[in-house]
Every structure is written in C-alpha cells, then in structure tokens.
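> forwarded from #structure-qc
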C-alpha cells in the first residue's frame, strides 16, 4: 500500500504553500481559506476515528450543503473511511433501506431527523449537522485533534453512491480513490481549470456532479469557489462578473434565461458554462448563446462512471450532443453483442479508469453490467457520428431523470398500485423545460371518487419530492401490446406536450 492517502494527497497538492488563499466565499461574505478547509477536515477525521471509525467503514451523510459538510467528506477520506452521501429529500422510509444495506459506522443528519434516524441506524453512532454548520458533529470536531491522513491506495474505496435502476433495489456504486482522482484530474486539464479560476458552486453535494466534479476539480486546480447553498438566480448573477465558470444542470440555464439581468456584459468575465446530469435542449443552447455570447459545454456521465464524454473546450460544441470520449475513456455502441458502425443507435458501453468497482453487495448485478474486461453497460441508447460526437438518444429502460436526479418508475408505481381504489398505474417521464423530464403517473382507478389529491397525499410521506408525479392523469385503460405489456413509449408520445 502507498504510504500516502491517494485521493487526499492529490486534492491537497494544488494548495500547498497557499494556506491563506481563499478556497470558498460563502453567503454574507464569510471566506474559508485552503488552510482552514483542510485543517477542519483533519479534525473531522480525528473526530471520526475517536468514534471508532476504521478504514473501510462507511459514513452515511444526509445534511444540507455547508463547508462543514465538505470537511466531513474530506475528513472521512482522510480517516480511511468510505463516504456515503444521501439526497436530502429522501424520507426516513427511504433511508431505512440505504442504512440497512450499507451498514455505516457513523451517520450524520439534520437535528430534525435525529430521533427517527437513530431508530433505524442499528449500532451506528448518529451525530447532527445543520444548515448553519452547527450540531453535535461540529462540537466533536472542535474538541478533536487533527490527524495525518490514513494511508489508502488507488484501489481502496473512497465513496459509495446509491443510484436507481428501472426495477428492483437501489444499487450502491463503489468508487475508488483512483476512480475519483483520475477523472477529476482529467476534467481539470480538459476544461483548463487553474488557480486563477473562480467557480460558481450552486450544485448539491450529495450528488456526483456537485461533490466529485465541481468540488474535486476546483481543489485539484487550486481554484476558488463561490459556495452557494443551492441554486439562487440572484446570487449567481451577482457572482458572475467576478467569476469565471459555472457548473449546472439544465434547470439552472432555463431559469437564468428567464431573468432579464442575464446579459453579455454580466457574463463577459466568464470563460466557461458547463451543463450535465440531464439533456439540455437545443433551444436552450441557442438562447444562451444569443444572450451571453457563450456556448454552453455539455458533457455526459453517470454515478457509475463519473464523467465519460464532453464537448471540447477548444473546438465545436455541438448542441444536442455530449461531445467526445474524454482522454483515457473508451466508448462503443452495442446491439445484441455486436459493435455498431457510426451513426447507428444502440446501447452505450464505457471503459476507463473512471468506471466504478461494482455494486455494493450485489455481485450478480455487477456481473450483469460490468464486464470482466472493464466495459460498463450504461443502459443509455446512443449513437456516435462520423466526427466522433456522441449523442444520447434515450434509455434502454424507462428510467426518468428529473432535474438531474434518477427516478425509477417501479418504485412509484408500486406505491400507487397499493392504494385503495387503484387498479394499476404507469409512471413515465415527459419533456419539461426546467427539469429535463417530469414524472407523470397515468392511473386506472377501480371506482369513482379516487382523487388526485388522495394519491398525492399518500405519496408525500413515502417519496422524496423529486420522485413524486408532477401530474397524475386518470385513464380508462393503459395501452398494451399483444403480450399484455404496458406500452410506455405510447404513453410518452401521448403526453409529450403536457408541459410545453
């Protein structure tokens, strides 16, 4: 094993000798230096070890976005642990599965959920961290001694991120130190990030985009960030004249376009706008170019693969495509075990140092999707044109991606179908200007009197908000083929203009 902590040694390298330089500017003007960031992380690592955390143990975290949460991520990796971020929208009912599956040694949550999470956390030690960066974790960190990073190798696990499929249980994607460091280093170079950059960081940090793309790339480049708790058009537009880059999801760009303050003058200091996590409409690309003079750079990745493709920094950024395979990443389009020629549509396969280690405690699922020679079957339908640009044209299965978050229909359908007065349901994704796709439930009721409000009310405590249908539609029967299978493609076509 290497004598160093593989990921931490790389994340710290760009700020060595720059301890007093500003890493993050927070709302209300608070500034956090690189030295403060890593000193706090080292104390967080000490706190975790004092709780009995051993190398390889999981730290499950469901908290709001704060610098203290970033220090907890870094501290977990410093302590040799495995970071497990959980969407803040998940209900206690949903968390029970994740905690039961991952068996973390430590769980950190908001004070409002302390009692309910303590009941489902088994033997894990449960601490709190609130939106102001305060709580029992902060108290413990303040009284703890900093530690030197525990030695971890390139292949040791650094994180587990749960990702949804279209059926069955959520899967924990295991990401190694090298999966994260190699991908972020490559993105830093490909997108030309340096210590001169100021990145507007408005993404959530329970998701790979905000945590492992935005945060890691900034640290590896020694860039500073404008650290916003969430998307805030006012704050982003205020930051833009002094910033150089923004990473966002399509919703960011559609909402900013609605604001008349977005102008070429305001964006003139910016060098790069990046979009990912969901498809960006060609119309959004064109409107953004017209308003700001900048062409958005769209890229493609997954929880299991980190980032795999990107439109070029220098060169033509083609709207509707996700660009080329990144350096060191291979892609191919497959159908029935055969690689397809350019221009034909099939399932996208990806291989490279970016590809994850497998699914936590799911060897059979891992074997289905991750080949022994390193190729990962993404499940996304794609084509590669004669110039090498990759276009994602859909999904092999019926996964819905709304606002950058994955929703698998089976989970929502099962809850709806269990309700009194419901015969069956079909959950689909339909185009939505803000969210890329919106979750829509098409429902067949067994009796009159079953209401949309009753269904919505029943789902409110069972599902995170992003999973709940934005519209519920009653029909007499669902369309089926001759084998009796519900035709979701037909439903998507029928309701494609619902949010137009």
């Amino acid at each position: 094993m290497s004598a160093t902590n593989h990921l931490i040694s790389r994340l710290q390298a760009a700020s060595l000798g720059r301890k007093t330089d500003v890493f993050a500017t927070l709302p209300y003007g608070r500034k956090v230096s690189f030295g403060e960031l890593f000193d706090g992380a080292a104390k967080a690592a000490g706190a975790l070890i004092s709780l009995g955390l051993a190398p390889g143990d999981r730290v499950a975290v469901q908290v709001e976005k704060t610098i203290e949460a970033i220090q907890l991520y870094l501290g977990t990796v410093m302590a040799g642990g495995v970071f497990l971020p959980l969407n803040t929208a998940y209900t206690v009912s949903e968390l029970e599965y994740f905690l039961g599956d991952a068996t973390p040694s430590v769980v950190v949550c908001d004070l409002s959920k302390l009692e309910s999470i303590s009941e489902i956390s088994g033997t894990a030690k449960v601490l709190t961290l609130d939106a102001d960066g305060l709580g029992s974790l902060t108290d413990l960190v303040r009284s703890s001694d900093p530690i030197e990073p525990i030695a971890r190798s390139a292949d040791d696990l650094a994180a587990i991120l749960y990702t949804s499929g279209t059926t069955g249980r959520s899967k924990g994607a295991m990401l190694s130190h090298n999966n994260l460091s190699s991908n972020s280093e490559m993105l830093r170079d490909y997108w030309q990030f340096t210590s001169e950059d100021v990145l507007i960081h408005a993404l959530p940090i329970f998701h790979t985009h905000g945590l492992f793309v935005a945060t890691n790339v900034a640290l590896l480049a020694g860039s500073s960030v404008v650290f916003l708790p969430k998307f805030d058009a006012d704050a982003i537009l205020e930051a833009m004249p002094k910033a150089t880059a923004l990473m966002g999801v399509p919703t960011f760009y559609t909402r900013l376009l609605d604001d008349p303050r977005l102008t070429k003058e305001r964006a003139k200091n910016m060098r790069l706008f990046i979009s990912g996590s969901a498809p960006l409409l060609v119309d959004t690309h064109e409107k953004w170019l017209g308003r700001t003079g900048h062409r958005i750079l769209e890229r493609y990745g997954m929880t299991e693969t980190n980032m795999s493709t990107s439109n070029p920094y220098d060169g033509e950024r083609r709207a509707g495509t996700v660009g080329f395979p990144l350096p060191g990443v291979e892609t191919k389009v497959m159908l029935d075990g055969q690689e397809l020629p350019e221009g034909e549509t099939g399932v996208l396969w990806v291989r490279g140092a970016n590809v994850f280690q497998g699914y936590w405690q799911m060897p059979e699922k891992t074997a289905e999707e991750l080949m022994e020679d390193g190729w990962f079957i993404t499940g996304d339908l794609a084509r590669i044109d004669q110039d090498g640009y990759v276009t994602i044209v859909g999904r092999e299965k019926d996964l819905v991606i709304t606002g950058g978050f994955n929703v698998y229909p089976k989970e929502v359908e099962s809850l709806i179908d269990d309700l009194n007065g419901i015969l069956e349901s079909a959950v689909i994704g339909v185009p939505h200007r803000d969210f890329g796709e919106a979750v829509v439930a098409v429902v067949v009721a067994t009796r009159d009197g079953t209401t949309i409000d009753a269904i919505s009310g029943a789902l409110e405590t069972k599902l995170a908000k992003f999973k709940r249908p934005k519209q519920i539609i009653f029909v007499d029967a669902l369309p089926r083929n001759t084998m009796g299978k519900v035709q979701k493609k037909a439903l998507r076509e029928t309701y494609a203009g619902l949010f137009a």
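QC bot note: The two ends are 55 Å apart (CA to CA). The first strand starts at residue 22 and ends at 25.
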